[in-house]
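ugh ok fine here u go
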Amino acid sequence: MALRLTIGRQVSVAALLALWVVVIPHAVLFSAAATKAPIPPRTLVSLPKGQINQILAFLKSTEPDVFHKAEILRQSDPKQFNKLIAEAAPNFARLERLRQRDPKLLHLTLLDLADTHESFRLAGELRQPGLPPSAAELLRARLKQVVTAQFDLRQKIRLHELNELVKKINELKAQLKRRQTQQLQIIKKRVAQLIGKPPSVNW
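structure:
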């Protein structure tokens, strides 16, 4: 069972990454720097049909239950469908920014999303009334396996983030040292910039 679970996770993430290559380049991006005022939720009118379909494809791969709900709401309650899409869009955009910044962390995050969904699904099955003890025991064992795998995964995520922070700190230390050794040249160049032409803020 452990092997089957591992293979399933690999296939699922491979499918998600493949989806990202096709879907994400046209994703709806939300920029915090665009305005200081709170950005109201996107409405169905403001999202082109193609972008809505991209978000639905994202939900289908990461949260099948939510995707199924969205498909029903699309026909029965457009207002609630619009709300669901608006709530999913920022997460969709967040993962695209993550893909651009740190593909390895994106891969780990997609695995984490898959584990989260699977743990919720198994827990939901365990809460069903009248579940035979043998079935409950099997589900509980599978749930423990998923949660254990997710714990290990989240440790990897934290270690990766820590390593990236250490790398950034080391880069800043090296930059600080270079600037200190080149202090006179930097100051001389900056004075020349201020006198000769409109200055740059980056010096």
